[in-house]
Amino acid sequence: MKLFRTGGLVRRVTPILILGAVIAVQAVADLKPVLVFPLYLAVVLLSALYQSRIDSYVAAGLAASALLAPSLLRGDRSGDAVAALLLAAVLIVVVAVVHEVVQRIRQEAVAAERKANEVEASEERLRITVEAAPVGLALIAAGGGWLQVNERLCIILGRSRAELLHMALGDVTAEHDQTAIDEALAMLRSGDILRWEAELHQVRGDGSRVPVEINIAAVSDHPSGELVMLVQETDISNRKRLEGLRDGLVGVRHTILSATTWEQAAPRLLSGLCAHLDWDLAQFWAVDTELQALRLRQAWHRDGRALDEFHNQSRRVSIASGEGLLGRVWKSGVPSSQEDLSNATDYDRAAAAVQAGLRCAVAFPVISAGVVTGVIEMLTHEGRVIENDLVTMLSTAGGEIGQFIRRAETAQALRRSETDHRAIFERSPIGIARVSSEGELLEANPALLLMLEHDFQIMRSHAWPDLLRAYDQAASRGRLAPLLAGITDGKSVQVRAGTGGGNWLWLQLTATSIPDSSGRPEHVLVMVEDVTVVREAQDKLGEALESQRSANATLEKLDRTKTEFLSIVSHEFRTALTGIQGFSELIRDGGLEPDEVRAYGGYIFNDADRVNRLIGDMLDLDRMESGRMSIRTADVDINEVLSDAIARAGSSPTVEFKADLDPRLPIVIGDRDRLIQVVSNLVNNAVKYSPDGGTVTLSSRSEGGFALVSISDTGVGIPPDEIGHVFERFRRVRSGAAQAIPGTGLGLTIVKQIVEMHGGKIWVESAVGHGSAFHFTVPLAADNVSQLQRRHA
Amino acid sequence: MPEPAPPGAKSSITVLVADDNDVAQRLCRRVLEKAGYTVLIAVDGLQAVEVALSQRPAMILMDVAMPGIDGIEAMRRIKTAIPNQPIVIASAHSMASDRERFLAAGADDILSKPFRLADLVAIVAKLTANSGV
Q: Which CATH architecture does the domain made up of A630-792 adopt?
């Protein structure tokens, strides 16, 4: 076939040459077409089989022409000619048929070849693909033994192909994932599942672990007929690492967001970092500012006694700045690592670390407000390369942890302060109320409720509004702002308030407004103190002071009165004594006429008598005023007393007496002598103050259970400015026409005392130049016996 | 009570006695006339001022507690008109504070009641010493 294809010329020419030879033979031998037909048929068949369609039709056409030619040339219409025509037709048909068949066969052959080529290429590609795949691919036996592995899987597992082919999947799976693998294989074998996927750790040739995403599918149609499984593994260590970094930071943030204190957060932070970043142990070292050293404060590790011991060793150490890994981190403020602790020359606890099987350490600073306040160290049993992104992540975490510690400390201080304030609020002996800016009571401490003997509900709905009103009223009296206006500059207001128990208290309220962040009063704090005791003491003190003051005033007045009295009395006495002493001296010195001596003796007698009366009046008055004088009560006929007085005074040359007595006036109960003293005093005054004569009228009548007695004159009268004082001691009317009228100045005072001792009253009406009228009353016997007896018992 | 004027040079010397108490008036008049003075009597403050200004006595014996204007006021009025008029306050107000009060009001001397007759004569003699005898 190839020959024809390559030697096209030979192939094309050969049938023509054979035909030409046959035609020549036919022509020369003039053979019958029937005889030469098999030859033509053979040539045409060959042409049809091996030549192109055109070539084969040309050959067929030639052969047909050669068969027909003799007949045509001879014009023969015989049976031979017909036979020739048929034969020629047969040739053409044969060519067509053969050609079609050949064409078919040929096409099928080409297709088959192409297919074979394609399969071959595909297999090659698959092989290359499998080998070069970025995922590990392998076939394993139903028991797990490796049958075929690709290059990538060898790289992932860190083992050679030859090594792997002697091992099983379980052999390279981390211990804690082996159960899962075994179970998965069992389920795949049993046909319960066709495919199993997981993320697990495999153990590399060097013993390190690698996280992989594994996908195992049962493959049932393997030529061997045995069940095999296709294993696909992807090294996800990078993804895991990045996820770990991300999750680690998220974990840190979550922890510090949900925790309130560092003590609360520390274990979770340390364990979270270890879990997400796959470390075995973490420690927080705090800077001890007093010691100027790092001391272990919190630690966390995965289970293992050896790690406990490492913590114990660590606790005994204090690390100076710049010393070892931690000291360097402290000093520099940037993360640092020790990738191989067994060869570390500058690691503080190298021996302890190696003993605990720890191989790699990383440490990062906890920075708060730009200052390293601690260092967190993480260690692992594995050898590890510290990637830059881990360092970046730890730096970030360290900063955020530092901020958290600072926040937590501030918050703790705040909480402590809040707790203190709460305690003050709850336990204060002073009542404290928190009031909204609308005046509503928001909170009342126990002391306030206890003080006012209300529960909070009553306090809020009733007692507080009352208190608020009382405050504002008291404040406005004191020219202070109302409570809700807020600032009172610490000025207090005292109000009276009733308690639930029905007591009344004096409360001292001091309001302070608490502004919100914008400075508007958000609420008002009101301190309420029970100042009842103080206030009552103050009131008592005030009363005492007041009564002291008034007593003092009384005493002073008394003192003044006494001094005044002494002055007046001594003046009266000395005036009387002037005459007595002077005239007696004249008499003693002798050389007087008898008439003179008699006259002077008269003056002396009069003045002596006056002194005597003065003394008597003063003693009477003193006895009456001090309540030491009693009156002897008996039936007294007032009209008789008045008549006697007129009879005694009747000798007066200038004054005319008139009596206007009520004959039906009942008997009064009284001290006869004293009532005579009253009447005679008033009559004498009337006469004395009528120097130019006139009429003195004495009248009596009954009025409202009293005997009303009046003694009126037509004398000089009493000036209006003196009329109010006539009953006072030594208040003698000395002006005008009355100036020369003698008297002790005590008469009316005594009269008033006597009248009042009888339960009566005395008063005076007067007009200057027209005279005066003195009126007094004495209770009548019938109505007032018992009263008098009681009063003077 | 008219008394016969005793013989003597002093009868030209006039003394005004201002007192509302008639016993005191009598006593002074009796003693001073006996001593040779001419005695004028006033029974209250206003009368004393009036007599003093019209009669120009050599000296005045002035009671304090008198009706109307008292002796102190009368003395003030007299001293205003006649600044060098000798006036002796003769009062039964005998406390130390009274004495000070009278001197402060311008009294030339004080005669406390009751008085010894010799004291009365002596004080009148002293204050009339410059009068034209």
A: 2-Layer Sandwich (3.30)
SS (H, E, C) A367-406: EECCEEEEEEEEEECCCCCCCHHHHHHHHHHHHHHHHHHH
What is the band of A731 on the pLDDT scale with cuts at 50, 70, 90?
low
Listed by start position, the domains of chain B span 9-127
- Segment 29-68 of chain B within 8 Å of chain A by CB: 30-31, 43-44, 65-68
Question: Per-domain residue ranges for chain A?
Answer: 2-111, 133-235, 241-387, 428-530, 630-792
- The beta strands (E) that lie in A715-792 are given as 762-767, 771-779
The set of residues, in sequence order, having a beta carbon less than 8 Å from that of B69 and lying 6+ positions away, is: B44, B45, B46, B49, B77
The CA distance from A407 to A400, in Å, is 10
B117 and A571: CB-CB below 8 Å?
no
Helix, strand or coil for residue A522?
A: strand
Tokens, residue A160: 């050679």
The CATH number of the domain covering residues in B9-127: 3.40.50.2300
What CATH number should be reported for the domain whose range is A428-530? 3.30.450.20
Six token digits for residue A89: 């037709």
| Closest to B30 in 3D by CA, of A579, A594, A575, A574 | A579
Q: Identify the CATH number of the domain defined by range A133-235.
A: 3.30.450.20
pLDDT at A222: 56
Residue found under tokens 């796959």: A278
Chain A positions touching B65 (Cβ under 8 A) are 571, 575
pTM of the predicted model as reported, rounded to 2 decimal places: 0.39
pLDDT at A377: 94
**CA gyration radius for chain A?**
74
Q: How far apart are CA A112 and CA A104, in angstroms?
A: 12
pLDDT digits (tens, 9 = 90+) for A358-401: 889 999 999 988 889 999 999 998 888 888 888 888 988 998 89
Rounded Cα–Cα distance for residues A518 and A483 (Å):
20
Task: Give the closest residue to A606 by CA, choosing from B48, B21, B7.
Answer: B21
Q: Residue A574 and residue B115: Cβ atoms within 8 Å?
A: no
| Identical topology for domains A133-235 and A428-530 | yes
- Please list the alpha-helical segments (H only) found in A30-141: 33-50, 53-74, 79-132
**CA separation, residue A339 to residues A325, A330, A378, B97 (Å):** 11, 18, 11, 116
Angle between helix A53-74 and A8-29 (nearest 10): 10
What's the DSSP call for residue A736?
Answer: G
What one-letter code names the amino acid at A58? Answer: V
The answer to whether A731 and A745 have CB atoms below 8 angstroms apart is yes
Among the partner-chain residues A583, A589, A735, the one whose CB lies closest to the CB of B67 is A735
Question: Does residue B40 register a pLDDT over 90?
Answer: yes
Report the pLDDT value the prediction gives residue A535, as an integer from 0 to 100: 81
Note whether A524 and A484 are within 8 A (CB).
yes
Q: Is A740 close to B20, i.e. CB distance below 8 A?
A: yes
Q: Give me the amino acid identity at A448.
A: L
Instruction: List all residues 6 or more positions away from A296 whose beta carbon is below 8 Å from its beta carbon.
Output: A283, A284, A285, A311, A314, A315, A317
CB contact under 8 A, B27 and A607: no
**CATH class of the domain whose range is A241-387:** alpha beta
d(CA A330, CA A703): 117
